[in-house]
Design goal:
The protein is an alpha/beta fold and 353 residues long. 48% of the residues lie in helices and 10% in strands.
Length: 353
């Protein structure tokens, strides 16, 4: 049945029943009642009623989808956290220790003051491409058992991307903060603000202003998305951010961040990362086993540094994944059951320039 086959009274009742079926803030119920009263007035004229109804129905669908009271339960186990952090990251002991300290504080405060909100520091991971900034933020979500929302800032030119568009705007919809909460169905996720230094020049100031509101614990408990036009509590979320450098980040934003410098990796560290982390993942992702591909120990330096020094491991990861794809093709073609990459054939498996 389409909406236009309903009577106006049936249509209004459909919306009120939707709202009644979920738990939302009490003050928001009062706000929605005003919308229903307006629909009742418009119901006297069907021609004007249905456009207003469609707009209101869309708004109600977003309202009831927001996880106003839904939360995931934190895993506050230091041994579990250590295990997961070591699984995901080689080295970086100082950074891992900082995360473990925060988990300890959360556990202690929740055991002694269970009804108080624990305000997490906002960690800003600063470093060159491929040094593990984004994966570290993802690991924080994993060790806590929280959902993850990633919001990319690269090339962002409109603050309304974060804050939403007003309902009077033809392109009205919530911003990425609210959309993220709706998608993860939790109001206490880890929210990763990725590459906050790479926003468009003409939008830099307005986006930094929104970031101040989002990241300030005194303000983010009443974050107002332009579309919802009602305060949403972001204080339960944990925010992380990444950037290549801090030169384009406003001082007011930096004041609310705890800067953590991600170090560049040495060649020896990259070899360990390649052997113990990247290669096993690449084998699995490409349908291979450790028996299908053997890599000679003496060629790892060439895999790690084919074109000179690279601070991160992104190029290294691409090289290993490319090598695995070539091996998968060779095996599928029936040319061999096992491939050994060594000095004699490395040029076949590594990119050549």
């Amino acid at each position: 049945m389409t909406d236009n086959l309903l009577t106006t009274k049936e249509a209004i009742k459909r919306l009120t029943d939707k709202v009644a079926s979920v738990k939302i803030p009490e003050n928001l119920n009062s706000k929605l009642q005003e919308l229903f009263d307006q629909l009742e007035i418009n119901s006297q004229n069907e021609e004007s009623f249905w456009p207003v109804y469609q707009n209101t129905s869309k708004y109600i669908d977003w309202i009831i989808a927001v996880p106003w009271f839904n939360q995931t339960k934190d895993i506050l186990d230091l041994n579990y956290a250590k295990e997961k952090l070591n699984e995901e990251h080689f080295g970086l002991e100082t950074i891992k220790e900082r995360i473990l300290e925060y988990i300890s504080v959360m556990a202690l405060q929740k055991s002694r003051n269970p009804n108080e909100t624990v305000h997490a520091p906002v960690l800003l991971f600063v470093g060159l491409v491929g040094t593990g900034k984004t994966t570290m933020a993802k690991s924080i979500a994993k060790v806590l058992g929280r959902e993850l929302i990633r919001i990319p800032f690269g090339g962002l030119g409109d603050a309304n991307y974060l804050r939403g568009h007003s309902r009077i705007n033809p392109d009205n919809e919530p911003g990425q903060i609210i959309k993220g909460l709706v998608n993860c169905k939790s109001n206490n996720p880890v929210i990763l603000l990725d590459e906050i230094d790479r926003v468009a020049d003409d939008a830099l100031n307005t986006i930094m202003g929104v970031l101040v509101e989002i990241l300030d614990p005194e303000q983010n408990s009443r974050f107002v998305d332009h579309y919802l036009d009602y305060p949403v509590d972001l204080s339960q979320a944990i925010f992380c951010a990444t950037c290549n450098n801090t030169s384009r980040i406003a001082t007011a934003v930096l004041d609310r961040l705890e800067v953590i410098q991600m170090p560049s990796y040495t060649d020896d560290e990259k070899i360990t990362i390649a052997k113990d982390y990247l290669l096993p993942r690449a084998l699995k992702a490409n349908g291979l086993t450790p028996e299908d591909l053997k890599v000679s120990a003496d060629i790892w330096p060439q895999i790690v540094r084919p074109l000179g020094f690279d601070a991160g491991v992104r190029t290294l990861q691409r090289n290993i994944e490319g090598m695995c794809r070539k091996v998968a093709k060779i095996i599928l073609e029936g040319k061999t059951r096992q491939v050994a990459v060594d000095e004699s054939n490395i040029k076949t498996f590594l990119p050549q320039w």
